[in-house]
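During the reporting period the student researcher (J.K.) took over the structure-prediction task from the postdoctoral fellow and processed the backlog of single-chain submissions. One of the processed entries is reproduced below for the supervisory committee.
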Amino acid sequence: MDLLIDNDLIYGAMHEVNESHMIARYNTALKGFGLPPTKLDTFTIDATGYSPEIAKELENEDYLNPQGINRRFIILTPEQESLPSVYAKFSSTYDLMMAMYQKNAESLRILTLKDVVFGEIENSTFHIGSIDDILSIKEVEFKFRTGGDLFTKARKLKTLLNRFFTEKDSWQDRFLMNKILEYGKLVGDIRYNNIIPRNTKFELPSFWTSHFDGLYVFRDNDGSNGGQITVIGDEPNPSFLQNAMFDFTYIHRQDTKGVYQFLIDTGRISGFEPDWLKSSGLIDLRQEIYVRSTMNKLDETTDLQSLSDNQVTNWIHNNIDELSKSGVFSFLTRIQKSLLNDVVPNLKNVTAALKLMIVRANPDHQDRVLVARLLSQFADFDFFTKFAVNKQRFYNDYNHYNNNLRNYVVHKITDQYFPYRKQYWETLFSRPED
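J.K. obtained the following C-alpha cells:
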C-alpha cells in the first residue's frame, strides 16, 4: 500500500491533528468510548474522525465501528465535512455524515470552538447476525456527546432561564443568577445560539454493506417495483434466504440478466445512450485499460506505463486472438465503430453482462452513486472507474496486482483522474461529484 499512500490514493485529503489541545480532545472521545488514549503526537482523521494511525496503534481497524454497526464518530472541527470517509461497513455512512454536518452546521461550529463532539449513529440493531438485522435499519439517529457535558449544561441553563423569566423576584435570587452566569460562560446565550444539534434523525435509503460478503440493498418506496426491497449479492444461494422474516427479492450478482432488468425496470439506468457514450469517452477508457491489463496478464514484466500508442497498436494486431477470447474487446470495438459512424448498433443478441459495461446510472435517480458503484463491478478490469465510485473494491483488487500493473494504475489515476476529477464525474455521471 506504500505506493498508494505516497501518491495520496489512500488516506489522502485527510485532516492532520498535531496540536496538544486537539489531541487531548480526541483522547476525551476515546475515553468516552472506553478506549485507551493515543500516545501519538500527530495523526490524521477523516470525516467521521477515523484515524488510520490510531487504528494501527490500537491494533483495531474497527475501533470506531464495533460489530460493523452503529458507527461512532469524533468531530474536532467543522472542516471535517469536506473530508472523505476512508473506512466504512456501509456506503451510507458518508452520506449520513454529510447530511448531519449540513443540517447542524451552526451547532457544530459553536461546539467545536469549546469541546470535542462525539457519539454514535444508532439504530435498532446492535449486532448483524441475519439479513433481517440489515433490512430492519430504515432510520438512524445521531447520539451526540461532548467532553465537557455541554448539552446537559445547556439544558440546565434553559431551565434556569425559564425560572428567571417566569418566577416573581427571580432577579433577586443570587444563587439562580450565579448559576445562569456560570452556565452562560460555558455554553453561551442559548436564546440565540443553537448549541444543541436539532436534526438528529435521518432515513437510511438504499445502500451497500460489506456484511455477508457484500450486499446492495435497494428500496423502492415510490411505487416502482411494487414498493419492494431488492438485495443483490455475490453468493448464489446465501443461507440467509432460508430463515429471513423480511419480504424481499434476491438477485445473485452473476445473474446479469436479472440485475440489468431490475435496474431498467426501476429507472436506475436508461439503457443504451449513444450520445452520452460518445461524449463521455468511456469506451476509449475501457478499451485502453482492457488491452493493457491483458498485456500484463500475458507478460507481467511488460512496463505498461512506458508503452507508446504505436507499440500498443502493434501488440493488438499480434495478439488479436487472445484479446478476443472473452468477447469484451470485440464488443467494445464494435460499439466504438458504431459511435464513430453515428450508427445505432443492434444489441438484441448482446448479453446483459456486456450491456452492463456500457450503461450509466440514471443521473436523476437518488441512488445514482450506489448504482454507479454496482455497475463498476461489471467492468471488473476497469480500475479507473472503481477508484472513483467503489474504492473498497479497488483497494481489494490492488492487493492482487503485480508491481508493473500497480505502477500503471497509480500513474493513470494520478495523471488523468485527480487533475480532472470534477470533469470526469460530470461527463460520466452528468453530476458534480456527490
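The committee noted the following: Residues 150-166 form the longest helix (17 residues).
J.K. will present the remaining backlog at the next meeting.
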